[in-house]
Structures are given as C-alpha cells and as structure tokens.
Design goal:
With about 180 residues, this protein is mainly α. Helices cover about 55% and strands about 5% of the residues. The chain is built from nine helices and three strands; from the N terminus they run H-H-H-H-E-E-E-H-H-H-H-H. It has a three-stranded antiparallel beta sheet with strand order 1-2-3. Helix 5 packs across helix 7 and helix 5 crosses helix 8. It is elongated. The two termini are about 50 Å apart.
Length: about 180
C-alpha cells in the first residue's frame, strides 16, 4: 500500500539543482493526488471463491477452448480471431461458469457465418459442459438463453435441469422463458 506520509518523509527538503522546478510541496501534493486517483483493486468473487483458481476448471476450459485467453478484466476471450468473449466477473460457481459459456458462446455455435468458428464453439460448449448438442439444439438454446436474455432460466438449465433440453422446452412452454 502506498502511504503519502511515508513518501513525504523520503522527499528531500530542497534541491541543489538550479533547473529543479518542482518544490517539495508540489511533489507531496502530486503524490497525494496520484494515490487518491489510483483505483483500488479488490479481489473479485471469482478469485475469492476460487473457481478459476481450481486447476481442473482451468484445464477443462483450456481443453475445450484451446485458443482461449483470459484478460485482466476477467473476460475469457474464447476465440480471439472473432473477439468472442465470456465475462467471468462474478462467476463464482461452476453452474455460473457453465451458464456464462452457454449464454455467450451459443450464438457463435449456431449462427456464425464461419463454419470453423461454429464447430469450435459447439465442440467447446459440448466438451466443457459435458453435453452432446447439435447445431439445431444449440440454435434453440441460443434463442431462449443466448446473450444473457434469461440468466435465471439459464442457471436453472445448467443446474436443476442438468442441461436437459426437454426440460428447458417444458419450462419455456409453461411461460418461464419470458
């Protein structure tokens, strides 16, 4: 942690350099302003709960999406060539992580004009989630759960419904997909 008083005590009281234009007070105030402007970093729920610290989860993500990288904003860039990202901030359970993968990768898995991207995303979803969806079933999932349109239903789909497409269809028929 940066302490302005500690920095102030380490600054020289005066300068022997005749070209020196920064006074001690100016330096102290500059340090204080910089310290106040510095954003605070708090551990995200992802790291606090340890889901992404779990080696097996990271291995499964990397195996399912071999081109993926994670940036400092806690976004999983699943397919860098097409900039397909999955926001991971707040994904503190495996169900939440699975829901995010379904929500943010399902479009590319069924609607991409690039067949290689479709195959990559569909295979990645199936491998990571332990499912065997086809492009047609993924299109149905995308229609009702894609892009976070119904996050609560998506969480139920990956948790309670255990990725069962028939249970999802029943829930939607009963009006839960709105």
């Amino acid at each position: 942690m940066i302490d302005a008083d500690s920095l102030e005590s380490k600054l020289p009281a005066h300068s022997n350099d005749s070209n020196h234009v920064m006074t001690r007070n100016f330096a102290v105030e500059s340090f204080r302003a910089l310290i106040k402007a510095e954003p605070t970093v708090t551990p995200s729920p992802v790291y606090a709960k340890g889901i992404l610290l779990d080696r097996a989860v990271r291995y499964d993500l990397q195996s399912a999406f071999p081109k993926a990288i994670m940036n400092l904003r806690l976004e999983l860039i699943v397919y860098p060539a097409r900039n397909i990202t999955v926001p991971l901030y707040g994904a503190d359970t495996l169900d939440e992580l699975n829901a995010r993968i379904i929500e943010w990768c399902s479009r590319e898995a069924c609607k991409s004009y690039n067949s290689a991207s479709q195959k990559y995303h569909l295979n990645g979803i199936n491998q990571f989630c332990g499912t065997i969806y086809t492009r047609t079933s993924m299109e149905y999932i995308y229609t009702y759960l894609g892009n976070g349109i119904n996050h609560d239903l998506c969480l139920r789909f990956v948790g309670e419904m255990d990725f069962n497409l028939n249970k999802l269809k029943r829930a939607i028929a009963q009006g839960e997909g709105k």
